[in-house]
Amino acid sequence: MAAVAAPVSAQELKCQVEVNSQKIEGTNKSVFESLQASIADYMNENRFSTATFSPAEKIECRLYLTVSEYENDRIKGDLQVQLSRPVYNSTYTTTLFNFRDTRIDFEYRDGDPLTFNENSQQNNLTAILDFYAYLLLGIDFDSFSSMGGQPYFDKAQSVVQAAQSTGEVGWKAFEDTKNRAALLATYTDNNTSGVRRMLYEYHRKGLDEMVQSPDKGRANITETLAELTTIHKNAPMSVALSVFRDAKLDELVNLYSKAPSTEREKAYEILQPIYPTDAERLDKIKKGDENR
C-alpha cells in the first residue's frame, strides 16, 4: 500500500483570539466580533516565515484583547499574549511566554480588512500583530535550536523601528520599561541576552531531557537559572525577569517538588533575591513535597 503524505502547511501559527468588550456599554458589539475574526484570520492565515509546518507542528499561541475604551473608531485596551510548546515525547505542554501589553491603542472600523505586507505597515493594529507574530516565532525557534530565532527577532526589530516613526504609543525606546520596544530589547540587548540562552537550555536540554532522565533534565534547568542572576545584576528592571516569572514560576514549583534538597535550595537561592514578593511560591520550591 502506498504511503500517504502528511498534509503540509506554510503557515506557522495556531492562534486562539478572544476580544473581551464587557467594559464597553451601549455600543453595537458587532465591531468587536468583526475585530476578533479579523485578528484570528490575520494570525492564522498569513505566512510570517519561510519555514514549513505540518498541522501538528503549528505554534500554539493565544491573544486575549480586553477593550477598555472605544470612541470614534479608536480602540484602547490591553493584550495578553501567551505562547506554549509541547515537551518532547510527552503530553505535557509548557508555557514559553506570557505577557500583558498595556499599551494597545489603534483605529479600527467594522469590516476593515487587515492586510499583511512584510515591507510596510498598514496601520498600528497590523504592526502590533506583526510584532507579536515575529516575536513568538523567535522565542519558539530559540527553544528548539540555540539562537535559532534570530531571523524573527530581526524582523520584529524592523517592525519596532518603522512603528517608532508613527507616533503611536507602545513603541518608543524609553517610553516605559514594559512596552514593545523594551520587551524586544530583552532578547536583543547584550545585558539581557541570557534570556535567549535560557530558552534553549531550559526547554531543549531541560524539559525535553526530563522525559528520558528527570534528574538530568532538572539539573540542567537548575544550572540555567543562573542566567537570571546575571540578567538581574545587569538590568534589574528588565521586563525579561517578569516575563520569566509569569511563564515559569508555577512550573518550577512542580519541577522541584521531588528534587533533592540540595537542588531545591540552589534554585531557591537563585530565585529569592530576584522575586522577593513571590515568597509563597518560592517557599514551595524550597520545601518540595516534604511539607505538603
Question: Can you tell me the residue ranges where pLDDT is under 50 for at least 5 consecutive residues?
Answer: 1-6
Percent helix: 40-55%
SS summary, helix count = 10
Strand order of the largest sheet: 1-2-3-4
Most strands sheet: 4 strands, mixed
Question: Which features would summarize this protein structure in a list?
Answer:
alpha+beta; 292 residues; four-stranded mixed sheet; disordered N terminus; single chain; 10 helices
Could you characterize what this model shows?
This protein is an alpha+beta fold. The protein contains 10 helices and 4 strands. Strands 1-2-3-4 form a 4-stranded mixed β-sheet. Strand 2 and strand 3 form a beta hairpin. Helix 5 runs antiparallel to helix 6, helix 8 packs parallel to helix 10 and helix 9 runs antiparallel to helix 10. The protein is globular, with a radius of gyration of 20 Å.
Summed up, what is this model?
The protein is of the alpha+beta class and 292 residues long. 46% of the residues lie in helices and 17% in strands. Strands 1-2-3-4 form a four-stranded mixed beta sheet.
Produce the secondary structure layout.
Blueprint: E1 13-20, H1 30-45, E2 59-71, E3 74-86, E4 93-107, H2 124-144, H3 150-164, H4 180-188, H5 194-210, H6 214-224, H7 226-234, H8 239-255, H9 261-271, H10 279-287
Parallel strand pairs: 1-2
Antiparallel strand pairs: 2-3, 3-4
Helix pairs in contact: 2-3, 2-5, 3-4, 5-6, 5-7, 8-10, 9-10
